[in-house]
From TrEMBL:
Signal peptide: none annotated. InterPro entries: Aminotransferase_I/II_large, AspAT/PAT-like, PyrdxlP-dep_Trfase, PyrdxlP-dep_Trfase_major, PyrdxlP-dep_Trfase_small. This is Aspartate/methionine/tyrosine aminotransferase. Belongs to the class-I pyridoxal-phosphate-dependent aminotransferase family. Its cofactor is pyridoxal 5'-phosphate. SUPFAM superfamilies: PLP-dependent transferases. The lineage of its organism: Bacteria, Bacillati, Actinomycetota, Actinomycetes, Streptosporangiales. Residues 38-360 form the Aminotransferase class I/classII large domain.
Length: 377
């Protein structure tokens, strides 16, 4: 595998490892179903029957309302036809990329998951980085940038854009004729990220596109939905790009999402949060024993970056060594899509796994780092 392989390529290699190595790469919830979730899954045959009896628009509207309500997005345009159900948030992102004018200049948050940048580049767009410190300082790009893309919370850092910052961005975009594009795939995991973004964007009068995702919340083995919502002011041909990609998402999966969203607001969020934080704590304790630390100690999303000090093995070296030991994590150079070398001192581990898996992965990381440091010395 090349050092320049994409994050998704590395995730696929972890998922399909013939040796059965530990997969601590992707942010999907690869967990055992809770008792409450298992009871919902047992009802899938009934969902098939209901999909036959009921109209798709009714099923879709109810799923949108349940999911978006569960994550605080009460002003989302449910029932207006401006929320499209996709198989995944990646497909939703590609639809947006195809709807944007070829050759347009867009600003994309940096660092962030590399397939966001890759999809936009593949569709003929020109990218400039919006670095996290600039976002926190509310230093928004002007012309020739026509759209500003932020990830909220950001992956891999967990950074949440405060409500006031989103309002500032939306007002700036209105003044400069720009579109605000938000990837909110991890929103459901973090209460602080669940202020009503749609209300903020609408109050500012912005042109906006928001992508939501269910795949990070529940262990449903890729039975997920990516929601693509857009404002009435948006003039991009989103519906045409959507129709070129798919007919519709599954009404069975939409019913599953509706039921799981109901559990999410009745204890599911807390159960998931407790597990992620327990896993974060064991990673922190284990890596600190060999002189490492969490790069983003305040992060609440289901991944964690470990910072590697100068002079020791970098994440590219550590990644390769750990694969040999049967553990897959993600080196962070691809997240730093505009400046890969700045990601060499970070490696990312997924926390949405059973505790025993994360604990074993953290021990392997610590041992690999210790052994490589000794060899280098």
């Amino acid at each position: 595998m090349s050092e320049l392989a994409s994050l998704t390529t590395m995730e696929v290699e972890a998922l399909t490892d013939p040796g059965g190595g530990l997969n601590l790469t992707d942010g999907h919830a690869r967990l055992v179903l809770s008792a409450q979730q298992a009871a919902i899954v047992e009802r899938i045959p009934d969902m098939f029957a209901e999909a036959t009896r009921r109209s798709f628009p009714d099923i879709e509207r109810e799923a949108h309302a349940a999911f978006l309500g569960a994550i605080g997005q009460h002003s989302a345009p449910v029932g207006t036809g401006r929320i499209l159900s996709c198989y995944s948030s990646t497909l939703a992102t590609d639809i947006v990329a195809r709807a944007l004018p070829a050759g347009a200049v867009i600003a994309v948050l940096h660092p962030t998951f590399d397939n966001i940048a890759d999809l936009f580049v593949t569709r003929g767009l020109s990218l400039v980085p919006l670095f996290e410190p600039a976002m926190l300082a509310q230093e928004w790009p002007g012309a020739p940038v026509s759209a500003i893309v932020v990830t909220h919370p950001n992956n891999p850092t967990g950074l949440v854009m405060p409500e006031g910052h989103l309002r500032s961005l939306a007002e700036h975009a209105v003044r400069h004729g720009q579109t605000v594009i938000i990837d909110a795939s991890f929103r459901g995991q973090v209460r602080e990220a669940q202020y009503d973004s749609y209300a903020v964007l609408e109050e500012a009068g912005a042109s906006w596109i928001v992508i939501e995702d269910t795949g990070k919340l529940w262990p449903t083995h890729e039975l997920k939905i990516g929601l693509l919502a857009y404002s009435e002011r948006t003039r991009l041909p989103i519906e045409r790009a959507f129709s070129e990609s798919l007919l519709a998402a599954s009404p069975v999966v939409l019913q599953l999402i509706k039921a799981l969203a109901g559990d999410w607001v009745n204890g599911g969020y807390e159960r998931a949060r407790d597990l992620v934080e327990r896993n974060r704590a064991v990673v922190k304790e284990t890596v600190e024993a060999v002189g490492l630390r969490l790069a983003d100690p305040e992060s609440q999303i289901s991944v964690a970056r470990i910072e590697l000090p100068p002079g020791g093995p970098d994440s590219a070296v550590l990644y390769k060594d750990m694969v040999v030991r049967g553990v897959h994590m993600l080196p962070c150079t691809p997240f730093h899509w505009a400046d890969p070398d700045s990601g060499l001192r970070f490696i990312r581990v997924s926390l949405a796994r059973p505790f025993e898996v994360v604990e074993r992965g953290a021990r392997t990381l610590a041992q690999a780092y210790r052994d490589l440091s000794v060899d280098a010395g």
